[in-house]
Amino acid sequence: MAFLSDTLARVKPSPTIAVTSRARELKAAGRDVIGLGAGEPDFDTPEHIKEAAIEAIRRGETKYTAVDGIPELKAAICAKFARENGLSYTPAQITVGSGGKQVLFNALVATLNPGDEVVIPAPYWVSYPDMVLLAGGTPVFVEGPRETGYKITPEALEAAITPKTKWVIFNSPSNPSGAAYSAAELRGLTDVLMRHPHVWVLSDDMYEHLTYGGFEFVTPAQVEPGLAARTLTCNGVSKAYAMTGWRIGYAGGPETLIKAMAKVQSQSTSNPCAISQWAAVAALEGPQDYVRESRAAFERRRDLVVSALSACPGIDCPTPEGAFYVYPSIAGLIGRTTAAGTRIDSDETFAAALLDEAGVAVVFGAAFGLSPAFRISYATSDAVLAEACARIKVFCEGMT
């Protein structure tokens, strides 16, 4: 009898975490490495949020809380959804977890049975397919190619839906591409979903506040209220408020689903960190200056990176609408050979050679389900990004 679970054999470790860990190892060994793999704001958590956490500690808010969130945070989340998204939820329709990843995982574990299918647009966040597999479901991929701006079309979504489809996972702005769907583009997809009442929508809105150039964010249940009864709208404080380590994610959805997710959480982690929950209240209810300031910084960095990479031979770098990633195509480099003699036959080979020969760590496109490409996180300083892009340019120019 095998010791490890057969289910575990169906999944793989996170490639993005692996790239970041490898970059750290090389740095520790004395190598000059620039790591552009981590999807984490480089800014500090705003002071008023940190102070709220300190005050919570002083008040003794260090005990167990309700399994899926304190009333004060649920109320703040309801107000946020109403204020920013036009969505009406009661506290009983809100769940809070230890990060957005746990919220998504809880939903899938609570609903998937063997044979259930989950439609996932590609390129996708690396964790979506593996969470589906761990929950016993079957991921079904729909490609959003470079030609459509890394977005799926209504026709492609329609073709992927079967009687076995239980969920469609929707992520806008996208990790890894930064692509975001306009209201009109999203309407085309929600029209398809309205024709399939057995399909639920899991909307991952984690990068909601990071959109650029006047782009207006919308979420599925906002565009099509008819989907609200079968939509879980997920979000969190990690990206918007530079609170990745605080581990607070949340979601709004039908009460029956929220109760089922709470049951899963009650037998796994129980409540999220009490102190982090009070910090999240301050984030949602307090001043929003940081959100505006960080958005401006990220937009400047996006423009810097897109401009620099577009000057690299063989690289095609579209301008994303949001998040803090670019997802350049390297179709023009496949089949070429680096100055050190490495033949580029895939984006995984490209990323490995870029790290070994130029000291720049990126994540290869195959990890996100769409090749040949790579992802850069521009959540670091302008100077670091300029140096990284300069190294990539030299690396590409050296190919034959």
Automatic annotation (TrEMBL):
One of its GO terms (biological process) is amino acid metabolic process. Residues 32-392 form the Aminotransferase class I/classII large domain. It comes from the Bacteria. One of its GO terms (molecular function) is pyridoxal phosphate binding. Pfam families: Aminotran_1_2 (PF00155). The keyword Transferase applies. Keywords: Aminotransferase, Pyridoxal phosphate, Transferase. Its EC number is 2.6.1.-. InterPro entries: Aminotransferase_I/II_large, AspAT/PAT-like, NHTrfase_class1_PyrdxlP-BS, PyrdxlP-dep_Trfase, PyrdxlP-dep_Trfase_major, PyrdxlP-dep_Trfase_small. PROSITE patterns: AA_TRANSFER_CLASS_1. The keyword Transferase applies. It catalyses: L-aspartate + 2-oxoglutarate = oxaloacetate + L-glutamate. Its cofactor is pyridoxal 5'-phosphate. Belongs to the class-I pyridoxal-phosphate-dependent aminotransferase family. Homodimer. This is Aminotransferase. It comes from Phaeovulum vinaykumarii.
